[in-house]
C-alpha cells in the first residue's frame, strides 16, 4: 500500500508546526511553535506550517496565528498548507485502507460508545467494536434508520510502540480509530498521518497531550506504508492550578502581552527563559539550543505576574 510522498518536491526532511485555527495562540502554543522551529532548524530540516482546519475554525484566527508566529521571528519554508485544501488526499488514503479490508462503517452515537463496556482486550475508553462485525443485513437496517455512518479502522493490534526523543519508548493503545467522521469529514488522526508523510515531515514536535494518540498514528502510517516520523512531545504550559493554560488565565496571547506593553522580543525572551535558554530572536535562542537540556517538567505560569512592562517580575 506504499505511497510516494508527492508534495515533497524538496527532499530535505522537514519539521512542522500545525495549529488548529480555533482561536489565538497562547503562550503554551507559541512555546511549542518555538520548540518545533528549534528542533527543525537545529537539525538542518525545513520548517513547515500547516493549518489543521478540518475542525473548529474561528474566522480570522489563522491569519492572527501566522502574524503572531512571524512577529516572534519564526520563519517557515514554502506555502502554508491547509488541510481543507487536501480532502482528496485523505479520501485516497481511506480508499486504500478500504480496498485492503481495513475499514468498516460505524453507526454508534457518542453516547452509545460511552455507555458500552470497553472492548475485552482493549484499553479503557477504546471503541468496543460494536459495529465491527455487523452482518450486511444489520448494516442495511442501521442505514435505513438514517444513522449517519462514521468509517473506522479495523485495527489488528491493541497496542503499538513509538520512540520519542524526550519520552523514550512509549507503548500505548490502538483501537478502531475513526477515519472519517459521521459528517463526512476526515478525522484528525488520519489527516495528520497523510499530511506528515506527503509533506516530507519526518520530525513531529508537539505538545505532550498528543503523546497518547501517537501509537495510533504510527500504526496507521505503518498500515498505509508510510514512514513513521521521529517524535518529540514537549511539556505543556500549565496555570497555577496545574491545568493546561487557557485564554481565561489572563494575558496569554501575544496581543494581550502587547497590550501590557511587552514587545514580541520580550515575549520570545520569556519563552526562551522558560526553556532554560536566552535570546530575543529565534536565531539567538537556536545558538544555545540543546534538546538534551530541555526541562522535562511543564512550565507553570501565572500570566498576570509575568514580565510587567516596568520590567519588575
Ligand atoms: N492541530 C493539532 C492541535 O493544534 C496538532 C496536531 C499535531 O501537531 O499533530 O492540537
Automatic annotation (TrEMBL):
rRNA-binding as a keyword of this entry, yes or no, is no
Keyword tRNA processing appears in the UniProt entry: no
Q: Which GO terms describe its biological process?
A: glutamyl-tRNA aminoacylation; tRNA modification
Q: Where is the composition biased (Low complexity)?
A: 1-14
Please list the residue ranges annotated as the Glutamyl/glutaminyl-tRNA synthetase class Ib catalytic domain.
Answer: 16-271
Keywords for the protein's UniProt record, in alphabetical order: Aminoacyl-tRNA synthetase, ATP-binding, Ligase, Metal-binding, Nucleotide-binding, Protein biosynthesis, Zinc
Name the residue ranges of motif: 'KMSKS' region.
244-248
In this chain, the stretch annotated as Disordered covers 1-22
Q: Per the Swiss-Prot or TrEMBL record, what residue ranges does the short sequence motif 'HIGH' region cover?
A: 19-29
What cofactor does this protein call for? Answer: Zn(2+)
Quote the PANTHER family the UniProt record gives.
GLUTAMATE--TRNA LIGASE (PTHR43311), GLUTAMYL-Q TRNA(ASP) SYNTHETASE (PTHR43311:SF1)
* Protein family according to the UniProt entry: Belongs to the class-I aminoacyl-tRNA synthetase family. GluQ subfamily.
**What is this protein called in UniProt?**
Glutamyl-Q tRNA(Asp) synthetase
Q: Which organism is it from?
A: Nocardia puris
**Phylogenetic classification of the source organism:** Bacteria, Bacillati, Actinomycetota, Actinomycetes, Mycobacteriales
The gene for this chain is gluQ
